[in-house]
Amino acid sequence: MNQDPLFSSAGELANFVLTSNLIDYDLAKNFEFQRGQTAFPCSVQPMVYHPTANRTIVVFIPSPDCTQYPLPEGGDLVPCPEFKFLCTKECPSVSINRAALTLFSSLHDLLSGLKAQLTEREGQLIITGYSLGGSVASLFTLCLLDSMDKKRKCRPICITFGSTLIGNFGLQHSQWNSFFLHVVSNKDPVPGLFLPSSHSQTTVYKPFGTYLFCSELGCACFDNPDLILKLLTVISSEVAGELQVVDYGEILRNLENRVICKGPLLVGERFADPFSAGIIMKLETIGFDQTKLLQHNIDIRRMEAEARSLTKKTKASDVKKLNDIKKYMALLEWYKKKSKDAKKGYYDCFKNGEFRRDIAVGEFMGHLTTYWEEMVAEVQWKPQTEGASFRTGWLFSGTTYRRMVEPLDIAAFYRDGGTDYINNGRSQHYKLLQQWYEEDAKTQSRDQLDSREEKVSALLTDDSCFWAYVEEAILSCESLKNANSSPEQRESSWDNLVMFGEYVMEQIENYAVSAEIFLEESSFMKWWGVYEEYIDTSRNFFSSRLVDFMKRRSYKQYGRRAI
Q1: Are 322 and 257 a contacting pair, CB within 8 Å?
Q2: Nearest-5° angle of CA 42, CA 46, CA 47?
Q3: How far is CA 34 from CA 39, 127, 351, in A?
Q4: Radius of gyration of the chain (CA)
Q5: Quick one: DSSP state of residue 458?
Q6: Distances from the Cα of 206 to the Cα of 39, 97, 420, angstroms
Q7: Cα–Cα dist 563/560, whole Å
Q8: What is the pLDDT of residue 274?
Q9: Alpha-carbon gap, residue 345 to 519, rounded angstroms
């Protein structure tokens, strides 16, 4: 029975690089300028290219001395306040290789200007470098990611070739691991330069990002840091004393059209389990057969068990979080029903805060908001393809959350005296959830509208900002009634009310608002009472679709085919 190939996130990134012609162009620029350099003190220079209108490539070119003798000051790590943005509660400090940091710092003025230039440029951005140039490219990319607006659609990908490890545990746990691809030849000792020759010795250096290991047989990618560390140690010990320039261009040109995958069919029946087969096949692809694994004490079975355990724990944690979220949403549904029975709707009940349950709702909101802010942030810092796939899986749940919870945030905002929620109070994660929903939404058919009509009594209002528009309409009515308002303010307030009426009628015709807005004690009905009185006394001849709809009391039949 055939099984589909299994792809990992690491594989998707490596496949993207190998099949998008980035490798050839990057390497061509790397080695073109490296050959053109004459001997000068160990240094790195950035060069910027625009191969197309929507692609920018920054190549960090090392001098010949840097290539032959990378990081001559040795492998000591030093605390680095410049990269404190990588610190977390679990890892409160970050250390960087002294020589790489010194070289990076020496380019501060040049790179500051370059960073400012790149953060303003749209399109695909590739940061790359060979040997020590790759070390500086990694540090620069981290700083660039930290300075970029999270709303930016395209963020940089860093591709290094034969670059040394540059940091400790803190770097390994960067939230931006998925933006880094490090290409390593099994003939190149430089990436493992600072690692001990024996597996029994420990090291403070830790890899981060995805590693693409290449050999004459093929290539394989890994993102398990422990396995990467073992492979780098073995390669470094086997080619120790043979420091030379490795032709990465030739290696990768031979692999240009290959797809990186793992599948049980390629490694024989003895590895029928896909998880085992994936690891074994990829290791054999880069020259690590069973004999070599035993020789260097690399226990694949133990690594499998650890990976499976971590996967189970992660899944268990995700399931618990999801169950908690479902519980809090169910509690809000209960609150919504109770509020409807009070003839107010849950928006106004929460805004007024008259009962103990109204206060308890704030706790439910807090848990839900924390969860969804984290989910949105996670998507924001994934590569575009991976992030789009990831968000599609939970976009329905995120939309339900936004439509249920954001009205409560709006209620709290106006209860506390705020104005213009859309511009002054709306959280970024709500904006992104709405943006992603609108990007995926399709035009509704007549059958879908009929279905919405039948279920309108149970629907949440589509536009999660509906109540913000209601509150602004109430403020506009107050402005019209205020004797101190200027003619200009009155005119502006009236224009806002006319636009609001058109907006509301459009929502009604599309069955996009909940029937709860027509409950007797709702803010919308209170607005209508004030607005109706104003147009009856001050604008006797004004009429609109919403005015006609409300005066005929058609809202009492809302959702019953009587509009």
Answers
A1: no
A2: 130
A3: 10, 16, 66
A4: 30
A5: G
A6: 32, 11, 48
A7: 8
A8: 47
A9: 7
* SS3 (DSSP) at 52: strand
Among the listed residues 332, 252, 259, 290, the one whose alpha carbon sits nearest the alpha carbon of residue 31: 252
The counts of H helices and E strands in the chain are 22, 9
Distances, alpha carbon 316 to alpha carbons 134, 313, 321, 375, 392, in Å: 38, 5, 9, 17, 21
CB 405 within 8 A of CB 368: yes
Q: Cβ(433)–Cβ(536) under 8 Å? A: no
pLDDT at residue number 471:
97
**Tokens 């490296």 sit at which residue?**
34
- Looking at residue 280, its pLDDT comes to 66
The DSSP string of 200-250 is: TS--S----SEEEEE-SS-EEEE--HHHHHHHHHHHHHHTTT------HHH
Residue closest to 161 by CA, chosen among 352, 17, 37, 359:
17
Among candidates 136, 307, 288, which has minimal Cα distance to 213? Answer: 288
Handedness of CA 312, 313, 319, 323 (dihedral sign): positive
Predicted pLDDT at 388: 56
Question: Pairing mode, if any, of strands 77-79 and 95-97?
Answer: antiparallel
Are 421 and 410 in contact by the 8 Å Cβ rule? The answer is yes
Helices 300-341 and 356-380: crossing angle in degrees, nearest 10, is: 140
Q: Note the Cα 403 to chain centre separation in Å.
A: 21
What are 387-420's pLDDT values in tens digits? 455 556 678 888 999 999 999 999 999 999 999 9
pLDDT < 70: residue spans in the chain: 1-42, 64-75, 88-90, 149-154, 172-174, 197-201, 240-244, 252-281, 290, 294, 296, 299-320, 322, 380-393, 441-458, 540, 559-563
Amino acid at 338: K
The DSSP result for 151-199, as a single string, is T-S---EEEEESPPP-B-HHHHT-TTGGGEEEEEETT--GGGTTS-SST
* Euclidean distance between CA atoms 429 and 378, whole angstroms: 11
Long-range contacts at 353-357 (CB < 8 A, ≥ 24 apart): 353/415
Closest by Cα among 442, 468, 471, 461 to 559: 461
Q: CB of 224 within 8 A of CB of 307?
A: yes
Decide: 206 and 167 in contact? Cβ < 8 Å: yes
pLDDT value, residue 552 = 92
E-strand ranges in 30-100 read 44-52, 55-62, 77-79, 95-97
